[in-house]
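Appendix B, record 7
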Amino acid sequence: MKRLVLVRHGQSMWNLENRFTGWTDVDLTDRGVEEATEAAKLLKDAGFVFDQVYTSLLTRSIRTTWIILDNMDLMWVPLEKTWVLNERHYGALQGMDKKEVMQNYGEEQVQQWRRGFEVRPPELSKADPRHPMYDVRYSGLGDRLPNTESLHDTLDRVLEYWESTIRPKIEAGKQVMICAHGNSLRALMKYIENISDEDIAKVNMPTGIPLVYELDETMHAQKRYYLGDKRKVEAGINEVESQTKQKVAKEKEKQPEVK
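Structure tokens (predicted):
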């Protein structure tokens, strides 16, 4: 049996502030550090020892990886960082408050930008200092750098790396962990589980909770499960799902007690 572990980075500062983050490089919150520490405990208690680990070039993912490996006494394990595992590029939306964007454009449009498989958010101008072309990490990538991305675009780059680099390691019997981002991991989940373009919109991944896949010979899922308390997993999934949901239920006003 071949296994693969996916971990979405712990809560970041912009997760907390409910902003579109994308390629913007923000760090973990204190809660994010705690989530990564707990992820390490869950993995260690489950008996995982990794041969190879992959992560993105973004701090929140790298730091989560470091915390997990440190707390598992696995800092010696080979770690490969690549921009290909970066979060989906959210274009001009990056840095914007999700609820404010929803108020300006409507919940349906924002849900399409967040979850539509083929829908790209508005492009980020190359003249904008937020564009990755001005970041030394991405020097030399030229036209490969996105101005915006759909989930389909993200899947294309992740899947190319999966086939060329990660899959051969797993097929060779290596125990692999990928610590990355909500959308780069959802893209891989779509492939591994053969999830339809429509159904992937309903998939939400909680921060900092390890997801274990048992894979068949074609590298597709036979079984999947999150480690840890099921209630925490459900709460984490619901938290991600609710980031751009309108709150329609209001707290009822308290009525004076009738004596």
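Remarks on this record: The two ends are 68 Å apart (CA to CA). The first helix runs from residue 13 to 16.
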